[in-house]
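It would be a great kindness if you could assist me with a short task in structural biology. The full record is reproduced below for your convenience:
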Amino acid sequence: MGTSLEDMRNNVAGIEFAHRTLFVDSLNATDRELAGTIDRKLDELKALVSVKDLRRVDIPRLRRTTEELVVALQGAAAKIGLKKPTLEQAQQ
């Protein structure tokens, strides 16, 4: 069974909630431009998944925008001091 359109919408909403609730203030203090990039990518993803049904999703654009958001979020993590967990920490 694949991912539904509602799953995609919920995933975008969860990422946006975490970003706006936990990280945006710290990121704005260190890199306002990157924070804006993340906001724009989230808005673009919301628009891409706001279609009526899965057949109307622009899959290549969705994939590209998702990958761009991932890269931006990775950059943001470094800017606000988040460190990758070690293997031992990840297993706990």
